[in-house]
Amino acid sequence: MALSRSAQSDLLLVLVTLVAAISWMFSKEAIVLMPPIMFMAVRFLLAALCLLIFSAAHLRRLTFPLLRRSLVVGSFFGLAMTSWVMGLATGDTMGEGAFLTSLGVILVPVVARLAFKESSPIATWLALPVAAIGLALLSLQHGFRLAPSQGYYLTAAALFACFYTLNTRATTADESKQRAPVHPLAMTTILMFVATLVTGTASWLLEFQPGSQIPVSGALILWVLASAIIGTAMRFLMQTYAQSLSQSTHGAVILILEPIWVALISAVWFTERLDGIQLMGCAFILLALLVNRWQAITTGIKKWKP
Which among 216, 100, 96 has a CA at the least distance from the CA of 158? Predict the structure, then answer.
């Protein structure tokens, strides 16, 4: 029996979370060897050039309204990734950062409500105070004060919520409004180019030092290429395509797997450990994510029953 478009979207998003988690490792290794925002600019440029080979025909067919919509989505994406990499560069534990960034999933219905007047389920409002408890626990180690890295991650979460919402609307058709979708390949390519512009500008403003040089090594080339091809081009193409398969935003619940993968990878690869308070904070955030999408989870379980 052929899988429905919604089921295909869910399976692809599971794979996306694993690739995204591996990308955290690639990025963490790379920013040890070069400035973090500059790394993102190089990463996105390489990914964009790779995708351009396959997306040129789709890009030529874009109308001005579709292009404008894509540029807006790309701007939020670029800003989110800039804030995210600053959190990665200034933070001590990837696992904590992944759980903080995943709060963007909870904020998706909130953004949809505020921006597009879409109704938000009661579960969203129940999840928000649970997430707040988790955030408070994570800030305990700093005396109820957010560390700079936590501030970057939370900013990235808010921007990612805007990105997820706009990306879903831009890549799915809306027959009631006669709105054509942006092809996933074209959208992903534009995302990469806009993110290159955003991060390149931020790097020039914040990191540029006349006369400074970056030692180029085999390890640096390896991590940059892996981040560009696997962690960026492949990951976001799969995510955009998966989101284009279904107008529903319930698939975002699957993204809660990403911080779990990241915590496991950071423990194995970097031997990172979360203390008891951090584990409790992450657990509350995970609980909030589950509460937020409980109906989608139970519906999915029923559908998958043999």
Answer: 100
Q: Identify any residues that bridge with 179 across adjacent strands, giving them in sequence order.
A: 174
Separation between Cα atoms, residue 162 and residue 159, nearest integer Å = 5
Residue 193, H or E segment: helix 184-206
DSSP category for residue 175: G
Cβ–Cβ < 8 Å for 245, 67? no
Phi, psi of 239 (to 5 degrees): -65, -45
Q: Which helix (H) or strand (E) is 172 found in, with range?
A: none
* DSSP letter for each residue of 101-137: HTHHHHHHHHHHHHHH-----HHHHHHHHHHHHHHHH
Using a pLDDT cut of 90, give the percent of the chain over it.
Answer: 39
Q: Is the pTM of this model over 0.70?
A: yes
Average pLDDT, the chain: 84
Residue 184 confidence (pLDDT):
86
Q: Determine what percent of the chain is predicted with pLDDT higher than 70.
A: 86
In the numeric block, which tokens belong to residue 151? 């501030």
